[in-house]
Design a protein that fits this description.
The protein is mainly β and about 120 residues long. Strands 1, 2, 3, 4, 5, 6, 7 and 8 form an eight-stranded antiparallel sheet that branches. The chain has one domain: Sandwich (Jelly Rolls), CATH 2.60.120.10. A hairpin with a 5-residue loop joins strand 2 and strand 3. The chain contains no helices and eight strands. About 0% of the residues lie in helices and about 50% in strands.
Length: about 120
């Protein structure tokens, strides 16, 4: 395995590309310009890291598809857990979501986050 180190920059928009993680019907404003700036993707798909940005949306997630650690760069995210408990995350806060978690994902203000996922 080759070791690589790199700096993940939050505002390198020329590297961003369209992302399609959120279904069109889940956006809560006219904006639908979801983007990803990938910085690392393991050849076997086991780990990814980068910056993701998304306008306001709300969607039910029956089982989160990956383990993810994220740091909110800007915006706001509210996660409503299956038991009804709600948590809101804002810039500078770090969030971990375990694979398989059931939740409602509600971006209330355009979100930009660092992410690292693993399967």
């Amino acid at each position: 395995m080759t070791a690589r180190t790199f700096k993940i920059l939050p505002d390198v928009d020329e590297k961003s590309s369209p992302s399609r993680l959120i279904p069109k019907g889940c956006f809560t404003t006219a904006e639908t310009d979801e983007t990803t700036m990938p910085f690392h993707h393991a050849d076997d798909g086991s780990v990814s890291a980068g910056v993701w940005e998304c306008p306001p949306c709300k969607m039910e997630i029956p089982a989160y598809p990956v383990n993810e650690m994220m740091t909110i760069i800007s915006g706001a995210l509210t996660i409503i857990h299956a038991d009804g408990v709600s948590e809101t995350f804002e810039p500078g806060e770090v969030v971990f979501v375990a694979k398989g978690s059931k939740m409602t994902w509600h971006i209330t203000k355009r979100l930009r986050k660092y992410y690292m996922t693993s399967v």
